[in-house]
Amino acid sequence: MNIRTMLCSTACLALMAGASTAQEVTVLGWGGDYARSQIEAYHKPFTEETGIRVISVDADNPATPLKAMVEAGNVTVDVAVIEYADAVRLCDEGLLEVIDTSILEPAPDGTPAEDDFLPGTLTECMVGTDVFSTIFAYDATRFPDNPPTTIADFFDTDNFPGKRGVRRNAKATLEMALMADGVPAEEVYDLLETQEGVERAFAKLDTIKGDIVWWEAGAQPPQLLADGEVAMTIAWNGRIFNAAVGEGKPFEIVWDGQVYEPEGLAIPVGAPNMEEALQFVAFATRAESLARAAEWISYGPTRRSAAPLVGVFQVDGETEMGPNLPTSEENMTNALASSYEFWVDRDAELNERFNAWLLAN
Amino acid sequence: MSDIPIGPTATARQQRLETADGTPLKSALARASRRQKLRALALVAPLALFIIVTFVLPIGQMLLRSVNNTQFSDNMPALVQWFAENPPGIDPDEAAFAALVSDLRNGAAQRTVGSVGTRINYEVPGTRSLFTATARRAADLEPPYREALLEVNSDWAREDIWAAMRGASQAYTANFYLAAVDRKRDLDGNIVQSDPQNRVYVQLFLRTFMLSGVITLICLLLGFPVAHLLATLPLRKSNLLMILVLLPFWTSLLVRTTSWIVLLQGQGVVNNVLVALGVIGDDGRLALMYNQAGTIIAMTHVLLPFMILPLYSVMKTIPPSYARAARSLGATSWTTFRRIYLPQTIPGIGAGSILVFILAMGYYITPALVGGATGQLISNQIAFHMQNSLNWSLAAALAALLLGAVLLLYWVYDRLVGIDNMKLG
User: Fold this and answer.
1) Which of B352, B382, B391 is nearest to B364 (CA)?
2) Domains along chain A?
3) Which site among B111, B258, B381, B392 would you substitute to test the A interface, given the most A Cβ atoms closer than 10 Å to its Cβ?
4) Do A348 and B128 touch (CB under 8 A)?
5) Does A163 touch chain B (CB under 8 A)?
6) Do B266 and A229 touch (CB under 8 A)?
7) What is the mean pLDDT of residues B271-282?
8) Residue B1: predicted pLDDT
């Protein structure tokens, strides 16, 4: 037995020993209220049913550390919550495990999972859990008489004075800038494909560049609003809803110009607890689990059969979730479905361009 | 040694010195001292090993990564071979396009095309999608491949993309260093400035030097009197003062930085006090953070102890009698300070300044939290490329340039002031 096989067998033994006693799964999420919704709806019931411990860790955008982990060959998480476009992109690059849809459970009425999920929420490597939206919200006490109503108002600092919170990221920011500049939702991506469209979006952002406070973590925008640091901020709708309804803050969401996108669970290549990870994904994407999550944060479930199961907001115990979901009829008048096809290919170059724009004086 | 005269007689001069057992003294001595050297080396070995493993190797690996990138060359073997067989200047023929298609097919199957596209995207921004989108359709392409590829996307005829692919087919490249100073190669291989909207690093390097210089200067101006006080006060009082200096030094960097956020933000303590006192109006709240001011204030506070401690240790050793002598000989207090006291503190000023300046150049947590967009330093971009864009080669090139700048600074300092004159504590 040479030294290498000896080392290997020792390592393998240690691994086996670890696997047999570990029984845990590490889930990388987005922190804040969104992570709480998943802990309440998925993690706790999962541990109750299977006895497998769920470790919850947070990142500003889990896709980023995930990619770094797989490329460095040091994967420490088993399941990650990632956006649709990131899931397709990372899947293309071979960083995510392909998930066989046969592991997913059918709807309560027996409909197979593939037919139960909304179109486009099941991809090769990601099982969708919810639809979230990037919206802008304002502090109602700052605009008592004349509240902002359209995405153009967000860029209008003359009539609506005050600082603006914007995510330090190109995705959704560029789309909203174009919509504020008068581009209809259905033309946004065609325009962004062109150099002029990109220039136009940055030119629109230039008009408020000096008034922007940049944020990176999803929990920051409600905090910035609450601190009075900004008068309006771009945010994820669930975070604002939880702060407004759950904590009674005077925040209002403007749905005009919202950009919505599914997100879901994916497993990185080389996940240390593959078995448990698959079990977790199957459990978390049951219709009941998805409905439970939607009772903790206002993100719409991705399964048809889950929609009627969604009850009231668990934090205050009375607010109906339906009208507060991004996909609700009245919120969709001027809404843009985030294009994964666009962002899969343009993410790297537009973010680099965005960075150069940001740092230029 | 043996021919050094050791005694007065001629016989003694001829005789070789020997130990009791008959071995020549010279070799016995050499053996003894070798053993001693080995023992000393064994004592140093753990530290040396530690430094090699945790410092020399990673830095070496980083420097290698800045000139070596195999994302393209490893994943496009057929095309790499075509480039090797056909010298520059030859237009891509059908064989080249066939090689490209076969590599793209493999890339789609092996899921490596994303990293190939990413690599070329570094050289020609906006081309990543060309690779990924074409690869998705590569399986259906029929010969002649040139026409088939141009059908999918006419960009495949672009000379700059082929030039970039030829460049990337070599694992070793200096292009990441060019990118790190906002330069690129044009079609003929000449080095030119990158497009204006992509220029960012030179400006950031200059900003990093400028802000580090400003922070060092402020630290010196604030730290000098405190260090002087520390060195001259009676022991009991100076101990108390020393604790006040050290307490923040021992507090977590993150805690100190977030405390500054509480103090400096628009609705923060400083602004609220100023508004309450009527110094500024409620609309005229000062922008003290999320800009360069925030970076300077927070970093000055964080780095101040690194200035005070070396200054203090030098000032402590300056006998007060010199200043008294100068005064008794008629010097004014200003002259005494300028000609007697200040020159003796130079080693401390040098040590403190170089310490603060070098630390400031590498800072990134504090500017990331309080710097907004204009208060970012070059290290924030290195972190961005390490963690977000995952362009590790560019991150390595930027880091190597920063390292080079620090070494250069150290050398200049050595020539001007002399490293021997530095006193760290």
Assistant:
1) B382
2) 22-131+263-323 (3.40.190.10), 133-260+331-359 (3.40.190.10)
3) B111
4) yes
5) yes
6) yes
7) 90
8) 43
